[in-house]
Please model this.
Amino acid sequence: MSILVVAEHDNSELKPATRVALAAAAAIGGDVDVLVAGADVDGVASEAAAVGGVNKVLVADNAAYAHQLPENLAALVVDTASGYSHILCAHTTNGKNFMPRVAANLGVAMISDIVSVESEDTFKRPIYAGNAIATVKASDAVKVVSVRGTAYDPVPADGGSAAIEKLDAATDAGLSEFVSEEVVQSERPELTSAGIIISGGRGMQSGDNFAMLEGIADKLGAAIGASRAAVDAGFVPNDMQVGQTGKIVAPDLYIAVGISGAIQHLAGMKDSKIIVAINKDEDAPIFQVADYGLVADLFKALPELEALL
Amino acid sequence: MKVLVPVKRVVDYNVKVRVKPDHTGVDLSNVKMSVNPFCEIAIEEAVRLKEAGTATEVVAVAVGSSACQEQLRTCLALGADRAVLIETDEDVQPLGIARALQALQAKESADIIIFGKQSIDGDNSQTGQMFAALTGMGQATFASELKIEDGKAQVIREIDGGLQTVKVSLPCVVTTDLRLNEPRYASLPNIMKAKKKPLDTTSPDELGVDVKPTVETLKVEPPAEREAGIKVESVEELVEKLKNEAKVI
Model:
């Protein structure tokens, strides 16, 4: 078997989600090549080559791929697909954007958002917002798969010395163009790769009150998240949302503050190793999944917590 | 400008689904079915384009069993002008749906096709992108704002870490994210009017497409239950447990 993993990156660094997809590739078994498509991606290519277990890194360095426009990226992956039994990517907004195009143009089904590899053609994936786990078997010749960012521990970033091969492909389909991007800049770790996350819900009562989480996040080196209720109420921007329709996270420690624990939210964080819930409603469903629950007024508990850390 | 909106009949989002005891799927008997919420946002956006004078016709389409007529009537009540059901009893999957829609688009020649970004049953997030690939169209997925200008769709997309703006030449595919709009409720007069709007039925055979699934579901299980832990009495006790018992801080 021979597997192609399409790298997730921002032209300057390889995202950890790529190494999770590589762990899934290792679970399938066989030679694993990585495709890095972007603009000025020498650094990303060297990073990918250093990852343990990678056989070969294919690099398509062209302005057409700078913003991962799905029409261009999918065409490149389809052109590169020949000879591979599996094509994998991370189940990120980017992976979700281009990968179904790859599958459709290859005339095969796609298996989205897998959480485990059962065999070379059988995978587990959540359905119904994580309320059920389906085991599915693909009968197509090529398996096109996206891997949930919390499915596996990422493979080590070092220990490999793969060959780097340049592709001179350059497809600009001319169907869409990039205009601009507003990416939130933060000193804090990214939600999907943070070891500790502290999230606020509707109980925070306002966006200003999220400042109370910041001091704690700084002391713990944590990322800050939010429930959909907090996002819908306009307290914080949507990129902070943890849940089925937001980010799926699985940190070592997840602290839910003023979050009732709607199924939508639980679907995004219940694989965290330790869950702490702070809520004044002792019947809140979040306590049913929390390892440590504290029934308390968050406006009293948060300053105390910050002082004790 | 014609807008085509593919919609899916799914279990209502308020229903807590249960896995069948024999693990063959989830129990959908006597469960309320609705228009997939993201598809409802797509219908709303299409109707707003018509109300703004940008679009001239809104066509809703579903691929599935005859029961989907119920959801298509809902779309008509929400403001779609007419509906098409591509009727099949096959358990259709994204690629099959995309192929059926491709064949329909060959007849309809819509200028913009607005999909929901995912359905809340399969959670695949594939059909819009697959349709775009098959028809050779550009796409703007996970839209939180859509404007039509000079033959192009300018779309703000929700991406990991922020927002991205792209321009896509028409005809194109847009898939909706949650914050694109808040769908209206169908009024009683509109529900009555919807009964008289045209709803045509065709089939994959008539359209000459194969919608047979290639992915087999071997079993469906409930997710691993997480055991509730303990309640702590104070912040001091919490910090002590996290440090000494869980050893995570």
In short: Chain B touches chain A through 76 residues (CB under 8 Å). Chain B has a mean pLDDT of 96. Chain B is about 30% helix and 30% strand.
